[in-house]
Amino acid sequence: MKKRASELGSTIQPLDRTFFRRDPRRVARDLLGKILLREGEFHLMARIVEVEAYLGENDPAAHAAAGNTARNSVLFGPPGYAYVYFIYGNHYCLNVSCLPVGVAGGVLFRALEPVAGIAEMAAARDIEIPDLDEARPALLKKISSGPGRMSEAFGVTRERDNGKDFTSTRSDLRIVEDDYRVRGVTVTPRIGIVKAAERPLRYFITGSPFVSGRKSQDR
DNA sequence: TACATGATGCCCT
DNA sequence: GGGCATCATGTAG
Q1: How far apart are CA A81 and CA A95, in angstroms?
Q2: Which residue approaches B6 most closely, CA to C1'?
Q3: Phi and psi of A91, rounded to 5°?
Q4: pTM to 2 decimals?
Q5: Nearest residue to C11, CA vs C1'?
Q6: Which nucleotides of C are covered by protein (CB under 7 A)?
Q7: What gap in Å lies between CA A55 and CA A97, rounded to an integer?
């Protein structure tokens, strides 16, 4: 089940900008199973298993609902760029912009399945993993199941990553795909919001043990 | 200039 | 299952 980075190397290719120039709901669903990649001091790879769509100015729960401001301007820019914001005085959350210039919309990354650089991600989270091969799934899940957790695992901050191009080979933060096929997708309401809380815009890979929340189903 | 609050996670019961 | 840390942002005054 677990793949080494070298096994993925021959088949991976970056997503292009047209992938992101679509309705956030389509982008969100299609992002499941893709790979988030960080090339920095360490080489990090993790599979996207849970996301949420934020629709833009007409979505009361979206940051873009406030209009174009200094904070959220990436959402109004071209598609395929990183929107990072700081929340609850503690956490960073990572999004990708969707739709053409001038039309706001985005997808929030909520949970990842660690693929490569697992020891480095665990260290960034201050999680002790004595033996990677024997590590319990419950321990691996702590690394990146949740928006704040996965940002910490990938070293994502607003200062470092806001406005980065996910589709450029010159970027150290990219989204790529391999031959992985998603078998099933579950759709539920979004987490942790008050406005428009009933809309089913949260997507995750059915049965993935790396989805956020206690039962890995709902929360 | 002040204030209320949030696309959260951790720790304690 | 619930309280709380902690601060940037938006909005009201």
Answers
A1: 8
A2: A88
A3: -125, 150
A4: 0.93
A5: A66
A6: 5-11
A7: 10
Is residue A58's beta carbon less than 7 angstroms from any atom in nucleic acid strand C? no
pLDDT tens-place values along chain A, 219 residues long: 445 544 555 678 899 999 999 999 999 999 999 999 999 888 999 999 999 999 998 999 999 999 999 999 999 999 999 999 999 999 999 999 999 999 999 999 999 999 999 999 999 999 988 887 777 778 899 999 999 999 999 999 999 999 999 999 999 999 999 999 999 999 999 999 989 999 999 999 999 999 998 654 443
Give the CA-to-C1' distance from A210 to B11 in angstroms: 21
The CA distance from A55 to A217, in Å, is 23
The residue behind tokens 């693929």 is: A115
Q: Would you say the C-beta of A68 is within 7 Å of strand C? A: no
**A65 phi and psi angles, rounded to 5 deg:** -65, -25
Structure tokens at A117: 């650089």
Determine whether the distance from the CB of A66 to the nearest atom of strand C is below 7 Å: yes
- Name the nt closest to A152 by C-alpha to C1': B9
